[in-house]
Design a protein that fits this description.
single chain, Aspartate Aminotransferase, domain 2, Aspartate Aminotransferase, domain 1, 7-stranded mixed sheet, 3-stranded antiparallel sheet, binds pyridoxal-5'-phosphate
């Protein structure tokens, strides 16, 4: 596809300005060095522009166009009614500084979502401020730090994190000033109990664990972990990014989890917005309540109000109250399902197990003796002898119109392909995806070169990803003509 600059024809226009009715000036006299002579804007008609951008938009891959089995991301279809509601003028245009008495409806929305998340997670309180899961982690760890400091336990500076964890977990802990201690996973893909018990000591501030973990495996000893930690005065952080596998069925607060973030953009029907805004609501047990950010929305039986009183608060983590549009979508999503929200978890798990079954002879399943939850991890190591890698399989899938699974994560599985179908996909899609993978693997064995040079049909083919990261070219090279 051509760049808009390449469509330029001298003198072609897509606008007309009204006749000048003020004195004409020479901009260059005013702007001096800021006046850029070399800017050679494209000269195009309105039709050129409309066609160009419409065609560009059609190159976008999205969950509204195709299947998106990106593990750990819960890329499910989001009901459009949630989008519609969040665009209502009444919600979209309210100013965050509107006096409480004129914002009762909006405050009620925030309050109701908070109450429902407390109920679903089994927590004493929920803070809706964090903008994403990773920010929820940061806030959760700040709370843990404040809790220990408040008790004069400054020495509790170690956070235990399993080797299967998402990269944001150790990153958040380090930003928070903690020392990260890695705990091994065992042969079942769960936290290695022996390694955990040996590393848990008086200096441990807490354990950060994902459940189900990033292998899609349920950590059955979660309650024992909570007990062991609490006995040492440490706390349990649960990364709730995989709550899609549990929603409506299990309440982590009842397992002894002290703090957990929900990813509203994974579990609760709001879009992953290309880096934001998202929602990383944080649920906490009674112990951590005194340190939560302000303000919290509360209800006195008659009116909703902002409570700014929390003397031990760690402070704010986002302007105002968090991303209101995301909260509105999440509330609508929960209310639409009502009591049936557990079906989300049931179908997410069922879909993952069925797809895993369909793929069982294609790739290596390193934990095949363990049932999976909402996602599973396979290894492409069986293709190494054809010199085909996980990345090649992922790229070949693009030619079949599927987004690629997450690759090379979790780090403990060689040549990992992490597949999460989500509950919103039909059996037809799952079977079509399995069939495509089957064809790719057959081809990898017979004609590996074809797989290694895929994709053929996408607008751009293989990108030098490492180089693009280090040496991004973000500007069109203007030619002065
Ligand atoms: C997505 C994810 C995160 C980070 O959440 P963001 O909302 O992307 O910041 C953390 N942990 C796990 C396991 C995840 O899948």
């Amino acid at each position: 596809m051509k760049l808009i600059f390449e469509l330029s024809r001298k003198g072609r226009k897509g606008y007309s300005l009204p006749v000048l009715d003020v004195p004409e000036i020479n901009l260059e006299d005013y702007l001096g060095d800021y006046f850029r002579q070399e800017l050679n804007f494209p000269q195009v008609s309105e039709l050129d522009v409309i066609r160009h951008y419409t065609n560009l938009s059609k190159l976008n891959y999205s969950v509204d166009t195709n299947f998106y089995p990106l593990g750990s991301c819960s890329m499910k279809y989001n009901p459009k009614i949630c989008e519609e509601l969040s665009r209502w003028e009444e919600f979209a245009s309210i100013h965050p500084m509107t006096p409480e008495e004129f914002a009762q409806g909006s405050l009620e929305i925030i309050y109701k979502l908070k109450e429902l998340l407390k109920e679903l997670g089994g927590f004493s309180e929920v803070c809706l401020q964090p903008a994403a899961g990773a920010q929820g982690e940061l806030l959760g760890l700040l709370l843990i730090r404040a809790y220990h400091r408040d008790r004069g336990k400054e020495h509790k500076r170690k956070i235990l994190i399993p080797d299967s964890a998402h990269g944001t977990n150790p990153a958040s802990a380090v930003i928070c000033g903690f020392e990260v201690i890695t705990v091994k996973s065992d042969a079942n893909g769960e936290l290695d109990w022996k390694d955990f018990s040996e590393k848990l000591d008086e200096d441990t501030a807490g354990l950060m664990i994902t459940n189900p973990n990033t292998l899609g495996i349920f950590e059955r000893k979660i309650k024992d972990m909570a007990d062991a930690l609490h006995e040492k005065g440490a706390l349990l952080y649960m990364d709730g990014a995989n709550f899609n596998a549990l929603v409506g069925i299990a309440k982590p607060g009842l397992w002894g989890v002290d703090v957990m973030h929900f990813n509203l953009h994974k579990t609760f029907g709001t879009p992953h917005g290309g880096g934001g805004p998202g929602g990383g609501a944080l649920g906490v047990s009674e112990k951590l309540k005194p340190y939560l950010p302000v303000p919290q929305v509360e209800f006195d039986g008659e009116r909703y109000f902002l409570n700014w009183e929390n003397p031990k608060s760690v402070g704010k983590v986002l302007a105002y109250f968090g991303h209101f549009g995301v909260m509105l979508r999440a509330l609508a999503y929960i209310l639409i399902y009502g009591q049936e929200i557990s079906n989300v978890a049931k179908y997410a798990v069922l879909n993952a197990r069925y797809l895993r079954h369909l793929l069982k002879d294609q790739l290596v399943d390193p934990y095949k003796h363990v049932p999976c939850m909402h996602e599973f991890v396979l290894s492409a190591s069986n293709l190494a002898k054809y010199d085909v890698r996980a990345i090649d399989v992922a790229k070949a899938l693009l030619d079949y119109g599927f987004y690629a699974p997450t690759v090379y994560f979790p780090l403990i599985v060689k040549e990992a392909l992490m597949i999460e179908p989500t509950e919103t996909e039909s059996i037809d899609t799952l079977e079509a995806f399995a069939k495509a993978l089957e064809e790719i693997i057959k081809c990898a064995k017979e004609n590996p070169q074809k797989i290694k040079s895929a994709p053929e049909k996408t607008p751009v083919r293989r990108i030098k990803e490492a180089e693009a990261n280090r040496n991004p070219v973000l500007r069109y090279p203007f030619r002065s003509s």
